[in-house]
Give the backbone structure.
Amino acid sequence: MKVLISDHLEQSCIDILTHDGMTVDNRPGLPASELQRVIGEYDALIVRSASKVSADVIASGVLLKVIGRAGTGVDNIDVSAATRKGILVMNTPGGNTVSAAEHTISLLLSLARNIPQANASLLRGEWERKKFTGTEVLEKTLGVIGLGKIGREVALRGQGLGMRIVGYDPVLAPDAAAKAGIELASLEEIYRRSDFITVHTPLTPETKGLLNDATLARCKKGVRIVNCARGGIVDEEALLRAIESGQVAGAALDVFESEPPAHTALLRHPHVVATPHLGASTEEAQEKVAIQIAHQVADALHGRAYAGVVNDAAMQLTLKPEVRPYVALAEKLGHLAARLATGKVKKLTVTGSGDVVVSTMELLKAGVLKGILSLTQSGRVNFVNAPFIAKELGLSVGESREAGGGNYPNLLRVRYETEKEVRECAGTVFGTSSVRLVMIDGFRFEVNPEGHLLIYYNIDRPGMLAQVGAILAAHNVNIAGLSLGRTAIGEKALTVVNVDSDIPGEVLEKIRTVGGVTDVRVVTMA
C-alpha cells in the first residue's frame, strides 16, 4: 500500500509506516494542482495544516482510503466529501495539549513582564529598565474560559505560579472543577474578577467575538487578555480600542481572525505580544503527532483499529440510510438542550422508543452529547470521543428504552438537568428523512429544526403573535414558519418561529418587552 505525505513531518512517521510494509512518498510542500494530479496512486494521504485537501483532490483519490491529519483540527480537509466517498478522516487529538498550554503560560508571562518589548529595546542599543516595569502574577486571578483538556492544563500551570484560578465552562461538573483546584464562575464573574483572561473554547457562532466592546468594558480595568485558542473569539478591533483606552492593559495573541493577520495596528501596539500560531510548535508535540498519525494510518489500512477517526459514525450511516436522519436529530436535540439550558447541564437522560431508535441508542446518545459538547469544548468533538469527554467533565449520562412513543413509531427524548431546572425536548423523523422537533417541556408541536429558531413562552391570548411579528417585520426579519403548543386556552403557551436570518440583540430586547412574553431565546441550528 502507498502513502503520500504532502507536508513537513518528522522522520519517525516515515520510519513507522515503512516498517509496517508501506511504500511512503515524502513530498512536503506539494502544490495543490500537483496533489490533485498524483493522489490517484495512493491508499492514504497524511497532511498537517498547509495542504488543502479539497473535494476535487478527494474526487481524484480513486484508491484513497484514509486521510490523516497530524494535528487536532481538520479545517483544511473537506470531511463531507471524504465521508461521501467512504474515506476515513482521522486526526491526533491531545497530541499538542501540553504544548498549547505551555505556550499560553509563556505568552502570559511575556505579557506580564514585557519581555519581547524589552528584548527589542535592548537589541536597539537602549537600556530602559523603568519603561518595561511589569507585574507579578503571584496571587493574581486568572480567568480561564473553556475548561477542556487545554484549559485545565493551563489552570494547573497557573496554580503552580501561585495564581487564583476561576473558570467558566457550560458543562464541567463542580466536583470535577473542585478536584482540579478550579473555582467555577459565570462569565460575568470572570470578567469582573480576573486580572488575566485566557480563552480555550472552540470557534462557534456563540463564541465568535466573545470578547468584544461590551464584554471588555465589563472586565476589571487593566485586565490582560491571552488567546491561544482560535482567531475570532476575540474581536480584534474591539481589543485595540480597549487597549488604547486603558481598559485593557495588554494582550498576548497566538491566533488571529485571518492568518497571516491583517490587523497590523493591533500587532504594532506596544502593549501587545504576538506569535505566528505557535501553540503546537514544539519538537515534542510534532514528534508526538507524527508518531501518533503514523500508527493510526497503518492500523486503519491494515484493518487493525480506527483511532482518532472524525467521520467513522457518519461513514457507518452511509450503510444504514434509515438511521442517518435519527443521528442528525440526536445532534440537533443536544444542540437545542445546550442553548436552552439555564445553568450548567449536570445530568442527561436519553430515552428512545421504536425499533430504529432503540437499536441505535448508543450511537444516538453519542450524537446528543456531540450536539451539546461541540458548543463548549475546544477541539473536535465526534461520536467516538463525546462519551469520554462527558465522563471526563463529570456529566452524568443515562439512557432508557420505552415500548412505544405515543403518536410516533420512533421517538427520541432528551431530559437534561442543571442546578436550576429540569427540561426536556423530543423529536422524530417523518417518512424517510424529515427531521422534526415535536416537544419542548411538555408542549407539543411540529417544527423543522433548521436555521434560526425564535423560541419564547407567552400567555395564550389573541394578538400575542401579531405583536411579536410586527417587531420582526419592523426590523426586516422574515418569518419562514411557526408552531405553538399550549396547555389550555388562555394559559401558558410555547411558540417556536422559524426565521430566515439571525435576530439582533436589540430586537430580542424589544420582544421581551411585550406583555405576557417570557424566556425569549434564539437558537441557530446547524
Q: What stands out?
A: The radius of gyration is 25 Å. The first helix runs from residue 11 to 19.
